[in-house]
Amino acid sequence: MIRENDKVLSIQNLTMTYGGKKVLNGINLEVARGEIIGYIGPNGAGKSTTVKIMLGLIDDYQGQVVIFGQDISSGDPSYKKKIGYVPENAEAYDNLTAMEYLVFTGELYGMDRDAAQSKAERLLRQFELQDVGHSRLSSFSKGMKQKVLIIASLLHDPDLLFWDEPLSGLDANSMMVIQEILAQLAAQGKTIFYSSHIMDLVEKISNRIVLLVKGEVVADATFEELKEMSEEGSLSGIFNQLTGFTEHRSKAKDFVSIVQGDEEYA
Amino acid sequence: MREFQSLKFLGAFKGIFTRFGVDYAVMEKILRIKLTMDERRVPTIFGDTGKKKKEGNQFLKSLWVYGLYSLILIPFLLLGENYMYQLSLVFGMILFILMTSMISDFSVVLLDIRDKNIIQTKPVNKQTIAAAKIVHIMIYMTFVAGAFTTIPFLVSLFRHGIVFSLIFLFELVLTILLVVVLTSLLYLFILRFFDGEKLKDIINYVQILLSVGVVVGYQVLIRSFEFVDLNMAYAFSWWHFLIPPLWYGAPFEVFLNGNSSSHFIAFTVFAVLVPVIAIFGYAKLMPSFERNLEKLLSDTKTRKKSRNWLDEAGAKWLCRSNEERVFYRFAASMMKKEREFKLKVFPVLGMSLFFPFLFIFTYSVDGGLEEISGGNMFMFIYFCNVIIPSVVFMLKFSEGYKGSWLFRAAPIEQASSAYSGTLKAFIVKMYVPVFVFLSVIFLWIFSVRILPDLAAVLLGGLLQILITYRIVNEGEFPFSTSFEFAQESGGAKMLLLTLITGAFIGAHFLANAFDYGIYVYLGVLLLAVGIGWRLVFPKRKKATVAFG
Q1: Average pLDDT over residues B163-182
Q2: In a 10 Å sphere around its CB, with 0-12 CB exposed, 13-18 middle and 19+ buried, how is residue B340 labelled?
């Protein structure tokens, strides 16, 4: 198992009930330094809920969550200093310019204003966004905004990253850059917790895949191990198999036939 | 980003915040960002490139209106030394202004969920986030209160001296606290018990009710005081403890008139203690508020599809083409479901229900119902036409305005049917119900003799809807503009359009001056509506679409 001082994150028996419905059903997870974890699962499986709990956005959960050796239920937010977060749906204060937003985020993480400023400028240049640094985020395309949010999550050099659908809206070239950044960050001992619906990508990037279905971990292994366990050759195949979804062909057929008006109540 | 004077001033209270466990430096950063964003609350399309660039805080620029309103306080300050009555009234109005402004302008700030994902994921403690939120609102409330009380304050300093104005100032701070914190606690209470979409609906209705309620209460208060002798001694009842303005009238009695009756002392204690207790309660409950805020994002219930036979019938019988029918149904459900729209429109509708009666009863205290029923008071029903311009204007706005690409992408043959459908839905769903409600009661008061007059009001209303549409909305699709535009482009045009109602009233009176004049007038109106509708929404020949 993982050595104690390598342990970045540990979740024990995490349950979460929302409106009488069990959203998380006893999750156990241990994460070590340098792992890139692809956190996958169908819509509504509880992925975002888990991430939100770990970030302290939800606090009425049961079970124990320990990050960097600190039980997060204590209410002390200092463990967040070494965490970087890219929210799903690219939420940000759109009326701010990219630079303002980045400096603000840096400052909230306790960075010095000038340091945040110069670092943000240099990182923007790497994504060729230096010319729009002083334009408002509301004028940005989805991909550009996503890049700004990725920079915002890395500005303070965190040790643990939570990225929720980080690649949405990015073009193929940018995706490759991000993919490489992730690999190099992990090689330097950063831990990356990553959720996406793009299976090909998760397959390529992650060195460990955690599959969540209906609030439970149904698989937790490397891609190779998963391949051995199932007869499917690709992660999306494995995903379908483990989530018990096999009728995609017949579903598609029904769908198309309705589109074409074969049903009598079209 | 620039430095803000308000933040410099806030620095003086650093110690207090630190004692509450707030990280002052971080709070200042959050506030600076928030204030910067407020300055930019301009439509995004102009934001970066447009020539019509408008920088600066639009809200602060509108503060002079409050200065104007504040003149109404001056007579109450000058009148005499019956402090209990005068100052209860003054503080009643201050509370009214602050409360309305709080609910209509700052509920958004209080219920902002972006803060959660953006700030709470950073190493910032909860006290700091809560404090930043409330201070942000407090800064604006101080501006509102400042604009509303500066002139009265100077007047009172001149008239009543320094002690009076010091009490006044101190109480002002307390009232701001009271309003902000009580509103937050109210939301907190609602958030505690309901969830998801239901919750948003409830908040929406509370906002609507409160904004109608304060206007109505204000009118009633003012009028009730017209009959009260200002020299009359104040008589205490236990339920007066439920009326906050009275708490704030009492200290003046106690300190300036040396009145030490136990209930005045108790009021004074209430005036100070309630806001302070509320602040502590707020600090304690804020975490659960933030937690429940999460509910705003999710909706766990599945809802049944509902079909309204009235909408179906309206669409079927009132619309001439299928396209128009589609827009009729669309507009009907938008009016029913869109909260921002309801928030802007329902209070106006509520007032049009209320004002006719208010005026009838205030202008006829002597004669009673008998006297009223013989007179011309039924003309007050025109209040339901006065609201037409502002509501019709609102029809082009929507929270989901971005979805309007659909109108351009879909093969719509006749764009004007979009608005004719929408206007018909407005008439059926909003105008006619208000009109019918008023008519029934008016018929009861004034007897059936006013039937032709009511018909003239209705036709006049229809014509006015058409005119308003023609002037403010033509050439655009309904529900296709951001509400951010609603504030700036209203103004003078709206006022002029409201005056059209005056023209209708004039014509109506003129018609009534002659025997059977009203029937001639009715005929003219009927013709005008018929022709007007065909002119504004011409029935074009069907264009043939030549695809594949």
Answers
A1: 89
A2: middle
| A217 alpha carbon, distance to own chain's centre | 16
Category of B419 on φ-ψ map: left (φ > 0), alpha (ψ -120 to 50) or beta: alpha
What residues does A85 pair with on adjacent strands? A162
- CA B24 to CA B18: how far, in whole Å? 6
Q: What pLDDT, on a 0 to 100 scale, did the predictor assign at position B476?
A: 79
Return phi, psi of residue A70, to 5°. -115, 130
B425/B433 Cα distance (integer angstroms): 12
d(CA A234, CA B315): 52
* Chain A nearest CA to B348, separation (Å): 31
Q: How far is A141 from chain B (nearest CA, A)?
A: 13
Contacts of A138 in chain B (CB under 8 A): 44, 47
Q: Which long-range contacts does B442-451 make (Cβ < 8 Å, 24+ apart)?
A: B442/B356, B442/B378, B442/B381, B445/B360, B445/B369, B445/B372, B445/B373, B445/B378, B446/B372, B446/B373, B446/B377, B446/B378, B447/B373, B450/B378
Regions in chain A scoring below 70 on pLDDT: 1-5, 262-266
Nearest to A57 among B33, B47, B116 (CB): B116
Q: Give the tokens for residue A103.
A: 């400096």
Q: What is the pLDDT of residue B287?
A: 72
| Of A44, A38, A8, A9, nearest in space to A25 by CA | A44
CA distance B172 to B509: 48
pLDDT of the residue at B489: 56
Place of tokens 């006049």: B460
| Position B344 confidence tier, pLDDT thresholds 50, 70, 90 | confident
Report chain A residues whose CB lies below 8 A from the CB of B126.
75, 77
CB count, 10 Å around CB of B193?
10
> Which chain A residues contact residue B302 at CB under 8 A?
none
pLDDT single digits (tens) B4-39: 888 888 888 888 888 888 889 999 999 999 888 887
Contacts of A104 in chain B (CB under 8 A): 29, 33
State the smallest CA–CA distance between residue B40 and chain A in angstroms: 6
- When pLDDT is cut at 50, 70 and 90, the band that residue B241 belongs to is confident
Mutate to test the interface with A, among B121, B129, B293 (most CBs of A within 10 A): B121
Closest C-alpha to A191, from A87, A72, A39: A39
d(CA B391, CA B431): 10
Task: Give exposure, B253-285, as e/b (b: 16+ Cβ within 10 Å).
Answer: bbbbeebeeebbeebbebbeebbeebbeebbeb
Residues A35 and A191 sit within 8 Å (Cβ to Cβ): yes
Give the amino acid at B256: L
Question: How far is the C-alpha of B38 from the C-alpha of B34, rounded, in Å?
Answer: 6
> What's at B136, amino acid-wise?
H
d(CA A243, CA B425): 47
Instruction: Find the mean pLDDT for residues B165-172.
Output: 90
Reference A190, options A198, A201, A182, A180; nearest CA is A182
CB B404 within 8 A of CB B527: no
* ipTM of the predicted assembly exceeds 0.85: no
Least confident among B8-12, B243-247, B492-496:
B492-496
Tokens of B431: 């105008």
pTM beyond 0.90: the answer is no
Contact B123 A109 (CB under 8 A): yes
pLDDT of B111 higher than 60: yes
Best of B31, B122, B126, B199 to disrupt the A interface (most A CBs within 10 Å) is B122
Residue A239 backbone dihedrals phi, psi, to 5 degrees: -55, -50
B368: confidence class by pLDDT, cuts 50, 70, 90:
low
